[in-house]
Amino acid sequence: MCGRYALYGPISRHRKNRPDVDVPEWYSALADAINARPMRFNVAPTDLMPIVGVNRDGGISIRELRWGLVPYWAKDPKVGGAKAINARAETVADKPMFREAFKRRRCLVPASGYFEWKPEGSAKQPYFIHDPDGELLMFAGLWESWRETKESEPLYTYTIVTGPPGIVSGDIHDRAPVILDETAWAPWLSGEAADAADVLKAAAEPRLIYHPVPKAVGSPKNDSPNLVEPA
To answer: What is the distance between the alpha carbons of residues 112 and 135, in angstroms, rounded to a whole number?
Structure first.
């Protein structure tokens, strides 16, 4: 499960880790958008956060959506929502909650890192997992548009796809967000469902590190820089 993450600047308009890969034009706009918005050190379900998606005309859109997917067919926004902040990679193509979004409405969720809790004795210690150079991580995600009536304003929501952990994240938890590298962004966003399924199968954990952080991150009321600093 990925239930908390962080997104804060400054974000470079260029990628340091993969100088051999051309960064798409929209990446600079994303970096500018993140640097211009309030820094978030403890993103929690139902928060409004930026995602990268595809418009109906095929262009790239950077928008702020609510974390916790509400399927378009729901009669009530309580269907999904905070209970659907994650979608399992193994079942996302078939589960009714996510399958239509997987076919047509995939997105990238930018993050500076994410939190997981590891049992240690009788308590759980939170850890912050991130790129060692501060590079922006891009989670595989899905988005949806829901309306109460045809005349209502749409509610836009998203979820983060999770899969088995990698070598680093497996030290902390038995699930991890699917992190996509630059070569996977385009096929994930714009490819057919079969292409997207291949992206999930091929996704490998990037170079990551982690450290323990203050237990105050457990409360969504707390949101300050010290929450991502070593405890």
So the answer is: 7
